[in-house]
Amino acid sequence: MVDDYHDLADSLALMLRALGADARVAYDGKSAIQCATEFRPDLMFVDLGLPGLTGLEVARAIRAAPDLSATHLVAVSGWNHDEARRQSSEAGFQEYVVKPLALETVQELLRARRA
Predict the structure, then answer these.
(1) Which of 29, 49, 71, 102 is deepest in the core (most CB within 10 A)?
(2) β-strands 43-47, 72-77: how paired?
(3) 49 near 78, Cβ under 8 Å?
(4) For 3, left (φ over 0), alpha (ψ -120 to 50), or beta?
(5) Could you state, in chain order, the average pLDDT of each consecutive group of 10 residues for the chain (115 residues)?
(6) Buried b / exposed e across 16-54, counting CB within 10 Å, b at 16+?
(7) Neighbour count for residue 6 (Cβ, 10 Å)
């Protein structure tokens, strides 16, 4: 989970752990890339509006890393408009969810990755 809003990132990580996932948290783009490189997650939730490196830049870096090609990227955003969705798709995100994240959405994404 990557979000500069610490409470949101920490809460989602707790939710993921409660659902049986091994979760890590990063609060900025640079840390997210470093964490992903070390952890090699199956699934990443990435806020688009990060300071420094944006979520779009994080997605491009993840897509450029051969060891992370199987990582499923989920854009997390407070923005719910077509342009943000288009940009996230072009950057390499497979999913787009609008904050706040519903438990059912997180469960569905985890189930899909485990299948």
Answers:
(1) 29
(2) parallel
(3) yes
(4) beta
(5) 97 95 97 97 97 96 96 96 96 96 95 89
(6) beeeebebbbbbbbbbbbebbeeeebebbbbbbbbeebb
(7) 10
Q: How far is residue 66's CA from residue 11's CA, in Å, rounded to a whole number?
A: 30
77 vs 87: CA distance, rounded Å: 12
**Confidence (pLDDT) at 115:** 79
Rounded CA gap, 62 and 70, in Å? 10
CA distance 28 to 18: 24
Q: Is the dihedral of CA 16, 20, 21, 26 positive or negative?
A: positive
Domains and CATH numbers, the chain: 6-101 (3.40.50.2300)
Helix (H, G, I), strand (E, B) or coil at 19: coil
